[in-house]
Amino acid sequence: QVQLVESGGGLVRPGGSLRLSCAASGQTLSQYVMGWFRQAPGKEREFVAAITWTHGSTDYAASVKGRFTISRDNAKNTVYLQMNSLKPEDTAVYFCAVRLLRGTLYTGWGQGTQVTVSS
Asked: What is the average pLDDT across 3-28?
């Protein structure tokens, strides 16, 4: 079973940048897709971005495309989410999770990291 730990959240002004990290352990990731999700107060959790571990293929929510970049470091078993041009509506708790390449269900949710965009 994969264990995930997120880090890198914080308070940033609108237009600023943050980089989130998701460190994975417990299992090899070659058959997995790593995803980032977020949940704002009073809202449902929503998909942000995903990357296939082996080939590095990426997918983004329309709301973050062009501003956020997901990447992975195979040697460190870590996935990153570089967030640029942040907006107040990006404020949320950000989570990472995994699913099998041929699966649909994300599991192994981390504890989340808070991102607050405010002046």
From this structure: 95
Residue located via tokens 């009073």 = 42
* Whole-number pLDDT of residue 103: 87
Contacts 24+ apart (CB under 8 A), 8-11: 8/113, 9/93, 9/94, 9/113, 9/114, 9/115, 9/116, 10/114, 10/115, 10/116, 11/116, 11/118
29 pLDDT more than 90: no
Angle at 48 between CA 47 and CA 54, to 5 degrees: 100
Q: How far apart are CA 98 and CA 37, in angstroms?
A: 11
Residue 97's identity, in one-letter code, is A
Tokens (6 digits) for 114:
């808070």
Q: Which residues of 2-28 are buried (b: 16+ CB within 10 A; e: fewer)?
A: bebebebbeebeeeeebebbbbbeeee
Query: pLDDT value at position 1?
Result: 83
E strands of the chain, at which residues? 3-7, 10-12, 18-25, 32-39, 46-52, 58-60, 68-73, 78-83, 92-100, 113-117
